[in-house]
Amino acid sequence: MATTENKTSFQRLPCLVTPINYHIRLAPDFKKFTFEGSQSIDLKVNESTAEIVLNSDKLTIENGADQCNVKLPNDNKTINIKEIKYNVEEETATLILAEKLVPGMNAILNLEFSGELDKNLTGFYKSRYIGPDGKERFSAVTQFEPTYARKAFPCWDEPAHKATFDITLVVPVSDNDDKMVALSNMSVKEENRDSQKRRVVKFDRTPIMSTYLVAFVIGEYDYIETRSKHGVLVRVYTPLQKSEQGRFALDVAARSLDFYTDYFQIPFPLSKLDLIAISDFSAGAMENWGLVTYREVCLLVDPSHTSTSRKQSISLTVAHELAHQWFGNLVTMEWWTHLWLNEGFAMFMEYLCVDHLFPDFMIWKQFVSDTFLSAMNLDSLANSHPIEIPVGHPSEVEEIFDDISYNKGACINRMLYHYIGDENFRKGMKLYLSRHSYKNTQTEDLWNALEEASQKPVRRMMTTWTKQKGYPVVTVNCQGSNRLELTQEKFNSDGQLSDADKTMLWAVPVQVITAKDVQKPQAEILLEKRVETLELGSLIDLQKEWIKLNPFAMATYRVQYQQEDLFIRLLEEGIGQQKLDPADRLNLINDLYSMTLAGRKSSDVLFQAIGSFRNECEYSVWTVMNVILSKYNQLLYGYDFHPKFVEFGTKLITQKVFGEIGWDPKPSEPHLKTLLRPLLINRLVTFEYPEVMKKCHEAFDDHVAKRKSIPADLRSAVYRAMSSQITDEIWEKIMKLHDEAELQEEQMRIQSALGSVKKPEFIERVLKFAISDKVRSQDTIFVVASVACNPSGRRTAWEFFISNYELFKSRYDVGFLGNALIKSLIENFQTEEMAHQIEDFFRVNPNKGWDRSIQQSIETVRLNAALMARDTEKLAKFFQ
């Protein structure tokens, strides 16, 4: 089958003519689910040409002189379009003109077109929802990133082709007309009625911007509003009669706007900012300038039903999209190769913002356990990619909206921030944003600004992180009592290095903390050579004391300690006596875990080290421990010593931390304690710990009988417990809860929990439920994924996918969801036989939009198989 290196032939749009301003009028029909459109585009003619090439996908452009022509206002002349040639593969339309355009002339391209409101959550599409009266309603909404504006109107749909936009929306006549809203990037300029009594809403002209940031919404919504301290009108639009569920997001949005305005020292350039909850939405949210769209679950908070983790997630998502209003919208990457300039920086800034707004979240600790580690895990695969990767065809663009562009991008930004300091970082950000406002940039433009501000070798250092795939492992070898030999080489998940890998070097900011002071580094070096020596000073004795590299996991590398006794001291004192910061504790065990997966250490050594965490009570550390326990639960399922592994994991949790955290929340307990409780209970549900299973049954019975509601934080665990011991009676009760739930978060909790069923007939029932009308298309993959993550159901989930391949392909062949589905289906298998079977299937049934995810997932299956071949006997001996 094709690998990710086999690129589809692709050429960017020619620049013979370029757009300056679009006048766009769109009129959706909610009965036929179609739309009519017209537009006049002011053009700049750069070279003599008789052809205009622009993007158009699944649109019908009227080919008549009255509807489609080029006007030359200065000459009072019209040039007809003789022919329209469509290239379906390239998603372009070529307009063949009757005469040539001449450079320097003013030209206006007039087009009339029509299309369908998309079914696949891209372009201009329909969203279904149930109104307060119980009746089905529809709205028309947009999702244009990365390359879907061309499905709504013919355009130059590339980031560098910035223009201004005058949007006019025609609102269908409704029996609830006073609740029908029309929204776009800008404020309403004027409104009137046409001959059909439809409202015609015109919006102010936008700033210069890229097509993927244009947005419009027509539907029934309520809203609440406030003003930021800098005077920006902020509104949150919600489904009817749910406006108060937008209150938390409204507060976060207004405060985030103020934070970024003060941090960047550049005002938000629009007069208003709308945030809107969309019922059907593929991604979590989209940063359209002035009109940010969200999944309902990523915006709405109901105090009775919203979990603490979801509320925290909403704050991060809102902060992320608002960071984009500067990073991405005001200054935009020139091409998708530089996507990380948008996403990596927005992800780093969301943590910086939320830490400012909610210091009690201790969000930077969670950054290490969530963002840092997920980036490292993906980036050690052979089928990873550099942060900056050449992309061309739209199908390739989708593949890089992944943990490399987002999470690794955020990690190297955090590393750079720490390296140059907050003051220099702020100066550099202001310089970059001011210098390139309303323009397009490449990565080098950012490095230039930060280097100018900090007077440090930013470009030299950071190029090693963006241009190369992967990251290094630094091996530490003690030389005498106070000298370290540091050696860097590329870290690969399979433990093998190619000839090309052996030549790779990074500029690694290495810092060292010692047992004497775990907060302040005692030595540091920018490691740029293969091997360097670092002097620690006479106050440290490596024969007796321990050290740790990469304090707080600030830099993007792994560490291997050559001396066994040094590592044992680290475990005994740093972990066992908890002298290390939580970020260092989790970093230490995750590095060991990764070394184990790569064959540098064995699994029995890993679990001996895990035993050192018997006193661990920190949420961020347990997040990593949970990942490790989950991985081995998948790998060891079916082996005769699997029950002993479950016993080991259960004892690790129950001997101290669960006794302290308990089932019931404590008054005014810290935020991280509130997050730790459901994590532990969910793990104990997976291990079927009798005490917890009994509590879950009691809580479920009380909840169904409406005697006492299950706390929102514990509902996922309770629903999973009941699903794991499902009966027809329990199924009916769960379905009733699902059907009556008004909050999407509650429905999604139930849907995902159903993946825990173990009886074969119920596994089939859950999978059929996943593709039924009861589950939104955007949520289907999470139901299927939950079954695939259940060792009892993963084979059935894969076979179900094969049987329904055409359905899944038609739904998810474009967008982010298909890649998420592929990974969840494949990654937990552990035999070479399954790797071959999966390869064979996709060789016959290729999908280029999923290709990178397929390759990464098959590689993970082979890594699983290699691990089990190496370590099965050692694990059996350890647990028995």
TrEMBL record:
<dbReference type="GO" id="GO:0043171">
    <property type="term" value="P:peptide catabolic process"/>
</dbReference>
<dbReference type="GO" id="GO:0006508">
    <property type="term" value="P:proteolysis"/>
</dbReference>
<keyword id="KW-0482">Metalloprotease</keyword>
<dbReference type="InterPro" id="IPR024571">
    <property type="entry name" value="ERAP1-like_C_dom"/>
</dbReference>
<protein>
    <recommendedName>
        <fullName>Aminopeptidase</fullName>
        <ecNumber>3.4.11.-</ecNumber>
    </recommendedName>
</protein>
<feature type="domain" description="ERAP1-like C-terminal">
    <location>
        <begin position="546"/>
        <end position="862"/>
    </location>
</feature>
<dbReference type="InterPro" id="IPR001930">
    <property type="entry name" value="Peptidase_M1"/>
</dbReference>
<dbReference type="InterPro" id="IPR042097">
    <property type="entry name" value="Aminopeptidase_N-like_N_sf"/>
</dbReference>
<keyword id="KW-0031">Aminopeptidase</keyword>
<dbReference type="GO" id="GO:0070006">
    <property type="term" value="F:metalloaminopeptidase activity"/>
</dbReference>
<feature type="site" description="Transition state stabilizer">
    <location>
        <position position="406"/>
    </location>
</feature>
<keyword id="KW-0378">Hydrolase</keyword>
<dbReference type="Pfam" id="PF11838">
    <property type="entry name" value="ERAP1_C"/>
</dbReference>
<dbReference type="Pfam" id="PF17900">
    <property type="entry name" value="Peptidase_M1_N"/>
</dbReference>
<feature type="active site" description="Proton acceptor">
    <location>
        <position position="321"/>
    </location>
</feature>
<dbReference type="GO" id="GO:0005886">
    <property type="term" value="C:plasma membrane"/>
</dbReference>
<dbReference type="Pfam" id="PF01433">
    <property type="entry name" value="Peptidase_M1"/>
</dbReference>
<dbReference type="GO" id="GO:0008270">
    <property type="term" value="F:zinc ion binding"/>
</dbReference>
<keyword id="KW-0862">Zinc</keyword>
<keyword id="KW-0479">Metal-binding</keyword>
<feature type="binding site">
    <location>
        <position position="320"/>
    </location>
    <ligand>
        <name>Zn(2+)</name>
    </ligand>
</feature>
<dbReference type="InterPro" id="IPR014782">
    <property type="entry name" value="Peptidase_M1_dom"/>
</dbReference>
<dbReference type="GO" id="GO:0005737">
    <property type="term" value="C:cytoplasm"/>
</dbReference>
<dbReference type="GO" id="GO:0005615">
    <property type="term" value="C:extracellular space"/>
</dbReference>
<feature type="domain" description="Peptidase M1 membrane alanine aminopeptidase">
    <location>
        <begin position="248"/>
        <end position="465"/>
    </location>
</feature>
<feature type="domain" description="Aminopeptidase N-like N-terminal">
    <location>
        <begin position="19"/>
        <end position="213"/>
    </location>
</feature>
<feature type="binding site">
    <location>
        <position position="324"/>
    </location>
    <ligand>
        <name>Zn(2+)</name>
    </ligand>
</feature>
<comment type="similarity">
    <text>Belongs to the peptidase M1 family.</text>
</comment>
<keyword id="KW-0645">Protease</keyword>
<dbReference type="InterPro" id="IPR045357">
    <property type="entry name" value="Aminopeptidase_N-like_N"/>
</dbReference>
<feature type="binding site">
    <location>
        <position position="343"/>
    </location>
    <ligand>
        <name>Zn(2+)</name>
    </ligand>
</feature>
<dbReference type="GO" id="GO:0042277">
    <property type="term" value="F:peptide binding"/>
</dbReference>
<dbReference type="InterPro" id="IPR034016">
    <property type="entry name" value="M1_APN-typ"/>
</dbReference>
<dbReference type="InterPro" id="IPR050344">
    <property type="entry name" value="Peptidase_M1_aminopeptidases"/>
</dbReference>
<dbReference type="InterPro" id="IPR027268">
    <property type="entry name" value="Peptidase_M4/M1_CTD_sf"/>
</dbReference>
